[in-house]
Amino acid sequence: MLRPFIIFALASTAAAQEDEGLRPFFEAYCIRCHGPEKPKADLALLDLGANDERWVDVLDVLVLGEMPPPDETQPNPAERRAAATWIEGHLDDLSPAPAPAAPTARRLTNPEYRNTLRDLLGIEIDIARDLPPDPAEPYRFNNQAQTMLLGPEQLDRYLESARRALSSAIVDPTPPEVHRTVRTFEPHPGEFTGMRRDEVSVYGSKRNTPGAGISIKSWPETGEYRVRIQAAAILPDGYDHAPLRLVMGTELRHDAGTGSFATVGVVELRNNVDQLAEFEFRGRIENHPRQPALETAKGTQPARMFLYAQNLFDNGELNDHRRSGFDSSWNYATPRVVLRSIEFEAPFYETWPPAHHTRILFESPLREEDPPAYVRAVLERFLERAFRRPATPEELARFERVFATVAPELTLEAAMRETLAYALVAPQFLLHAHADDDDALASRLSYFLWGSMPDARLLELAADGALQAPEVRAAQARRMLADARAQDALRDFTLQWLSLKKMPVVKVNQGLFPRFLYTYHIGERRGEEVLFRPTIRDYMLEETIGFVAELVRRNASALELVDSEFAMLNEPLAAHYGVEGVTGIALRPVPLEPRHMLGGILTHGSVLVGNSTGSAPHPIYRAVWLREAILGDEVPAPPAEVPALVDSAGDAATGAVTIKELLQRHRNSGSCRDCHARLDPWGLPFEQYSAVGAFAPRAPAEGARVRAFSLAQDEDLDGYAAYLKGVHTVPVDASATLPTGTAVDGLNALKAYLLEHRRDQVATNVLRRLVTYGLGRELTARDRAAVEELRSALAADDYRLQDMIVAICRSDLFLGG
Amino acid sequence: MARKSWQIDRRQLLCGGGLALGLPLLDGMAWSMKGRELPRRLVVSYISYGVYEPKGEKGQNHPWNWWPGANPGPLEFNESSAPFAPLAPYVSYLRGLDHAGGYGLGGHSSGDVFATGADMGGTEKTNNVSIDQVAAKLRGHETRYASLVLGTEGGTGTYGRAKTLSHRGPGRPIPAEHRPKAIFDGLFRPYAGENVAAVRARLAREASLLDLLLENARGVRRRLGRADQEKVDEYLDSLRSLEQRTQRIDRWTHVPLAEVDPGALDLGTSRRDPEAYTRCLYDLIVLALRTDSTRFVSFMLESEASSDSETWHYASHALGYEGATHDLAHKRPVESGHWDRWRARQHAYFLERLRDTPEGEGNLLDRTAVLWGSAHPHASHSNVNYPLQLAGGNALGLSHGRLHAFEGARKVPLANLLVTLLDAVGAPVERFADSTGPMPEVLA
Q1: Which of A620, A730, B21, B300 is deepest in the core (most CB within 10 A)?
Q2: Is A149's Cβ below 8 Å from some Cβ in B?
């Protein structure tokens, strides 16, 4: 079923049952299940009212051949087409009289709020950090009026956040005191063969070395900082760089598991120790957590921040369950970072006051000569950008009154901070309204493509009325997609569309997949995941986000989502998937060969892990994912109180019953059958991919138990791999008969089927997702024709993604909102 | 005017005798409440990481089992529950209850739904209104503060990592306050040292700023289509409720603040001294209740996501145990029992404080229903069958002294208890979350 178009209405007064043309068809093929008595899916075709939105579903299953089910008498193609045409004819008659319009104004989502403040104030502060999390639903976009609610708490928090942001944006006139911390690390003098004190290996370093962090005891409350380092790399054969990351925050304690930080920067070191190089990083001090002052038995420990150097080298083999920082041979076999010095300085500024300040409180003789006029000018400039359109005289006057109300007893700077904070809780800032004017159009473009406010160019075009021209919107869309800000919107879009956020919380069975996670092997936290490092799960998310972004960048076909000739990989991902020759942690497009069994997003770890149990594949989760995310179907939730499928991995992998058999039983039990017959076949072809997303074409023989990795029995991971190979003797059964009757065996066959028979459906889905996200509302039946028109225009050139986005921006649909 | 005995005697002391309550106290309240019913109150308190709860017959009779007794019926206090023995007429235990809506949450996340019972079946759904806020909405106008939302960690946390029990509705968690001084000042020094005249001036300024914002929003509303006007209405409602809060504060400036001297109450106490800290927060709740500053309180002790907080080592500070509290819950049964008893002692201290404060014919505890528990049994990531204790409210119709077991073939939702509690505190509702009816078993 396609996702139903909501607010659906058939305009024709001729209800189906009055049309003798369709009645015989229903009676011949459908009525045995969908008659008036206890109809399946509660769908009684002959009683379906003219305005019933389920007509769209009926049309879709007819066109796709999913109904009648394969074991029932089938209409011939001509009959099928005639029935579809009848329904389509009535859909096209849809009344132009609008159904009651749903609101489209909504508050900004947290990512939009953060991006907008960043672009408005010109400072990179993660100001949304303290806002309540946005509500979200799997496979749905939350940038919609029904989801983005605004309560008093939220408003209160917005005011707090706005005050905080403005206390960073507007500075006091006197240049502040500069705080500086410098530390150098001298290598051990003379002949020395161990790890030196200025080195950081992947497993850490000697104590009192850069890996142990430097402690910062004084810093300003707000402002930019600069961190400068002198660094180099020691590279064993086969490696051309060492990845260094600097992080700053509270004390990171592996033993206790406590600590939090924000990244200062990442650099790939390619120079050797004879050529120490200097690197510079900038950031905002506000983004980094600080260790509060603590009262201890020994006295008061002052507030501090810690700056750490991390070696992010990862070849996918870090987790061998033996090595720790004490195994020095491993330290020498992998790239090392050499850090000779770190210098922290804050606030760092080239001019005082900084640019983000003068952007608001600009230099002007008015300031002395005519203070009220100066205030008015400041407000006018700021409000135009904050409201994403020129402020009206009434609005300007109102905020002048706000200024007048707060100004007594405050400096100009303080009064302006407070006034502008109130502007940032005004609905003109917080709400993204779909008014029918050019300014709103500029915002619609910028929130669709950037997840942020329009820039000066867009606002100029809006002021000139130029955005009404489709070609202008198209040109702007191309320009905007090439801008770095497009990555923010694409990330948000991809995470929600593919419902990826659940992946990181799936608990992966470490016994069965001992290499997947990088765990502590010693100490109190033995067996737990190593903290404070990016993990392969983080990389898997970036893989998918990066892949979608790369397809857009290349203007590739939307069908490459199903299968592609490249994957976005870095070294740990490549090692996990079995692709050779990729080094370093930077993701990049890597050409694929058939033997890799990769391509498209169906084989992405983010999808496969997120839709597994953590121990075994979960064909139902994966089927739901495929139908929702790729085919655009809406899969109904199981009714309450249905017995759950035994989904524990253990049971499937170590018991006598395979998941496929479990499913078969589930499918055969009366009430479950109808839904599962149309669901399970989509998930079974994924069975060749393990719970951690690796190609695993063999399974244990029936009755064989798979034991977890044991250091004592296996000696090492190679031993366990050999054991697994011995147990996994039977080819995985990944065959299924799709609801249309087509038999597929394995994921490659499923992908081939999708590319051959479901091209338009996949493309329509991607198109509708983009339109839904861009308009910030669910589509209705009245949008169906417009979407179809876009789709057919794009079909000729294989549904290229950038063209698709541009086509949406230039369409009338986008104009109408 | 004759002094009623529920009015607080100025010489009554809290916190080891150091906290003096001076007169005049609650004069306005006393006057306004003349002839009216005494307050009905509700406290919901949550402890994290579950409790020690060994299974099997031997386990059920284990002296360190959290449950006072293996069988339904009169309570049999053991090592773990011993601190509540003196409170036997005031406590009951409820076995076999939980929120089905929390099943889909991970094993570290059920605190999210403890007071809400919301359906959090997916990973991305949102929470819903909590029981204290239902009561606050219906009865909160009767006190200076509609509710008090406390936690040892503060803030809201995020989905699956809640640090508050209270929610106004979906996507609207109420941040918990954890700083004793901020709590005390919020309750008893709301004017931040300003005199009442200055406060009224500030409130007037805030009111006029809110007025300007309202006026501004109405202007925006006029520019929009009818459907979008609904969204601005939502905004206007939020703004109005901030305005109402301002007005409420202003209105209560005409009622003298309870004169409460923090005295020896150590508001600077650190979480590094968990006993002093926890008792301080409990003392503050007692103070809030006895001054009738509020009647509805939620209190989240730790959270299952406290790894970014110093309370991660709470147990080690309290008991000298080396390691994270989380590990304690998983690994070490007897230490876990000691930890349970430590937490029981703090909660019993709170209940005793309430019991020892006279009010009307009885005491504060008689008119305060207190729900206390966790959302996990011991040493597993399960979130079924919460450990639950119900206390107080004897004068509100609750009956105590028993262990109830709701373990029949038909699952009884914990929400049924919440329906009965709301009824007991004068905020009756037809349904709450997935309730199927009231829970008469806990009533006299």
Answers
A1: B300
A2: yes
